[in-house]
Amino acid sequence: MKNVLVIGGGASGMAAAYAAASSGASVTLIEKNEKLGKKVYITGKGRCNVTNACPKEEFIRNVVTNPRFLYGAYHRFSNEELTALLESAGCRLKTERGNRVFPVSDHASDVIRAFEKLLSGLGVKVLLRHELVSLETEEGAVTGADVRTPDGGTAFFPVDSVVLSTGGLSYPLTGSTGDGYRILKALGHEIVRPLPALVPLETLEDWTKTLPGLTLKNVTLTVRSGSKTLFSEFGEMLFTHFGVSGPIALSASSFITERLDRGERLPAEIDLKPALDPETLDRRLQREFSENGKKQLSNVLTALLPSSLIPAVLLSAGLDKEKTASVVSKEERKKLAETLKALPFTIVSTRGFAEAIITKGGVSVREVRPDTMESKRIRGLFIAGELLDVDALTGGFNLQAAWSTGYAAGKGAAGQ
Fold first, then answer.
1. Is 80 exceeded by the pLDDT of residue 291?
2. What is this structure's pTM?
3. What pLDDT shows up at residue 171?
4. What CA–CA distance (Å, rounded) separates 180 from 241?
5. Do 314 and 296 touch, CB atoms closer than 8 A?
6. Distance from CA of residue 346 to its chain's centroid?
7. Which domains does the chain have, with CATH numbers?
8. What are the residue ranges of helices labelled H in 106-228?
9. Which of 18, 31, 49, 193 has a CB 3.0–4.6 Å from the CB of 396, allowing a cystine?
């Protein structure tokens, strides 16, 4: 019987402990927090978007970094296998818009309880408030772990294999403080620079910061670098006191965070009327101006835009908000239409890890076996979850990547 130590009790760690124990291994799971799944509790605004119910190929298309690496793990433990497992443990699930899967109760705690039930039933020993200090190796293989105990002492755990699943750097208050990166780097692993991803964006222009709380629905956000389009997506976004956030802004961050980290300032634009082509939009403006000729532009545009956004649009178009519609020239109307189709602003940075949903970067996947998650440098060491240089878009994809890589690592650690 293999003696397996799982370090980190988040999504990937719980999946790893379950997989190893269900394969006949003797499993101990250590977690430095006072409870398992502390980050899982806050995902999906406390509802826990456990996975996405889309087909495999669509799932892989939503992985931003190293999608091909995930094929093996996803094949071993897919979204369907996850949902079947959770429901077998009493956590009923439902599928919402965008194939997002949530507990029927809308409580993330039900997901944690389901895994606690599964682990308990398999005899997994769970040690809370225990924190990894270092891993011991001999002749290129892991032999044990030094662990800090709740009383401040240190205990040595002899092992046959270890699953390291300590998380990245996002939401550090949940315990994701980069411990795993430090330990793996000391063991010779290449660490791709960790950066915040699925994170709000800071902007240069003042006008973007004067609209906190304004939500734009059914718009298209595009970000470029020179002539190259880095990101373009239709959906919802919102303005904040520092810049922009919301679903499509968060998604954009995953494609541009590395460039921002290098100091690039990226031009962006919002198509406020993506359903209208330029000619149709121009006809709409002509009609509005003709029917409301005596009104000021700022009043006429309320039929097209949220009132709080109108000053920014007119400023960008170079138009006086007090000008009446009847005296707007053809060229001015054309400039206004162009601005409605491409309201420009500049992205200068992301917010920090405290506001990031996930971490981009981590252990280079070139150093990890994709079928078992075993390190190619240290035998018996398996790496799972957010520690890996794998990240995806919102919608349950990152959590499924954690479940899948954790499960594959647990199976591998148990010798399967």
1. yes
2. 0.94
3. 79
4. 34
5. no
6. 22
7. 3-196+359-413 (3.50.50.60), 200-351 (no CATH)
8. 108-121, 179-186
9. 49
